[in-house]
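Model the whole thing, not chain by chain.
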Amino acid sequence: MNSKQKPVAMVTGACSGIGLGVTPALINPGYDMLGTSLSISHSKELKVSSDLVLIDGGISKKETTAKVAAAAIEHVGRMDRLVNLDQRAFQLLQRAPGQPSEWLDRIFFLHALKVGLAGVLSLFVAQALRLQYPEWAPFTVMVLMMVHPHPGSIALKSLFRVVGTLAGASLGVWLVSDYVSSPILFLSVTFLVMGLASYKVGQLSSAMAPYAYFLTGVTLIVVESSAIAQPDQAWFIALSRAEETFVGIAAVLITNPLFRPRSPRQEFQQLARSAVDQLEHLTNAELQNIKEGTGSEVLEQQTAVLRKLLSLDSLLLAERRESLYFRANTAVLQKVLNSLRNLFQAVSELSRLAIDWKVLNGRFEKQLEAAQDLLRHGFANVGRPSVEDPSMLATRFQTLDDEINHWVRAGELQELPADQLATYLRCWNAFRRIQNELLSLYDLPNQLQRCEQDTVLQSDPPKTQRKIDRRLVMVGVKGGLATVVSLFLLEWLHLPGASIMPVAAWLAVIFSSYQIPSGRPGHIRTFRNLLLMALYGIVVVLALLVLTPFLSNYWFMNLILFCILFAHGYFASKTSGLAFWMLGTIFLVSVLVSLNAQKPVPFAEIVDSCLGVITGLTVGVTIARVLWPRLPQKELKEAAARFCEVAKLALAENPAVSMSSINASLSALPLDIARTTAVLGINGFLRQEQAKWNRLIPVLMCTGDQLSRLTSIRRKFMPSQELRPFLDSFHQDFRAWLDAFGRFLRRPDSHQTLPSVQGLIDRLKQRIAGLTVTAHPSSNGSVPETLIDVHEYLVAAELMRLCGDIASSLRLVEYSGDYFL
Amino acid sequence: MNVSHPEFNILGFLVPLSLVAGVVGFVIAWFIVAILERFRLTRYLGNISLFFIALSVLLAGLTDWLVNL
């Protein structure tokens, strides 16, 4: 053994499964082998020979790893290849330190710790100040730490919270003192105020001011529900509520900066690195698909990248909230996100290339292989900046690019058939775009690191939409209605239950109505969740029956509270968006604290408190689900149809609409569609539909990008008398097709079919063939350039055909129905 | 609903008829909607929650009427 000329390979897990197959297979082509497994020396299939050394030991333990390494050095001295098939090794790799999942796990743990500490601290302070209803302080903590887990701009948020609390308390005192004797007026004004608060909460993602409206709503409803039975105490109750809310806010402010504050920028950095890795896998799968046609995992990888892009988008928004008026230094993060998005689009372009390698052999094939090699190096540079100088890679790629341009100008590419020429140029174009994006992402860790210190760059704050949003108005009506109905039930029908009922009803409407943008399924399964919450309430009642005597011990009660808040904070921060169980837990914890177990608690009080929570949630959920329910499948159709509208605008080149805003919408809308697709609720064939949407989304992204490109090409040929009418007719046809596509998505009909784009494709192919034939080396490059430009139209038409094919296979008719109670 | 009907005595707990009828109506309506969902028939319903609530009320009334026959 150990002949220096022969390569050396080591196989872990060699005595069974794939390892048993791989080991002899490597010996035959001339490897010196080193096989390891727990009891490989007893293997009947593998015997020690001059080519094979067997070492007992699994590599999950330190001592056996050392033993294996020592044996390896003694026998072979070096290692050329490692085939790692030991299951425990995979587990070890998954648990390796520095992996993003572990890092995030620590973040979640710390967040949970803060929720627990803030809750206990707020209760302690509220009790020390002898406030009347101390349970509202931990309630405030839980709500505030759930709505946005990142600290954000603490000063601005706190200011809005204080303003909102004071406004809500004042309104509450005014309404209860003056109008409680005239219920119609009282409930009407309450409806209007709560409706406005519900409407404004919907704008929480793009501005800070809605915090004030949120706190106004919460405080108003809390003051009204408590003071309605004793209007003469309204001032005292409002003051007490405001103080309790301030205590909660103060506890959040104190605990948030403790330990290591959750920073969206850091989370963005980790996720961006992980997205680059995922994109590298996707590129490799796409390249393999082009070469061998075996890219079965492409769709899976594309979906994974899309998910990461969505999370990065959310983190960018969270980072913007970190500073006053959303003016955080997010320019670098935005640039990185755009680059990743463009990179994804460019890589997705490779999916639709049908290269015939029999035709495209020789120097063309070599050119593509050389470029693929460079791209692999490029990806390595993104993660590990010291590997290679990016300018070297850029120069090498430029050399290849120049060579192809030379072929184009010299007419040498015309020996290829027109369709293969087009495919070749598209492939090259995609490679060029990937290369450019990789260059802009070069040294990503340092780029992201730099932006932490660089305070010069400023990004514009996102523009808040001024016009009234119909969907938010619907939520406003529902929020107002839920409040009014629950107040009516509480005061005038005397339903059993604590005064927490109206708050539960309002928050049930708010939390369920604004779920879809945060990756939750909207109103799907809300009744089922409510039923589960009711069962959960029964368990809590029984648990409280047993625990109440022990809760009289102050320390025990705080310990229980801390444990519940910790568990709640941990699981809540691992869940995207606001799930229904979080809402239920918040109220049930509030019930636990409000029982004030320092004195004996009657069982009826426990039952009444839990009944109040469940009744409130029932009122909220029923109103939210029955009136204009927000279902992901409907929102998905609308978003896709909106994409068509914007794409039409891009082709129309309307001077009244800025191209930059159109391009921004074209790149953002597919991500909105992806977000909705993930929570789609259709019965029976959900997975198939999701898979189709996952295929369609990258195509839509590429189409949006391609249409923007067509606009600039058309502008370039404006003076040309020959080409302009030709291109204009295509713009018109594309617009007509997009119009039909939008209608098809919005109002699907089982008999409706999309107009075919095959005629357009044929016309374009004819034109391209004509250009190819007439091209001449001395034409100063104008014909090949025109060829490439006209070819861009062909790409757009093919993308549209693909969109149409995938959309036709969707069961859009079924999206009109309502599923999952 | 006939609220004058005497309560049911379940293990010593006196449960009003309207509550029993409500629970029965709710459970049967839930079961019917689950069957409709199982066979993907709810796609013909514009608002499944409204259908469910209406069905619950209807079945509760029917139960109450049947008990009072």
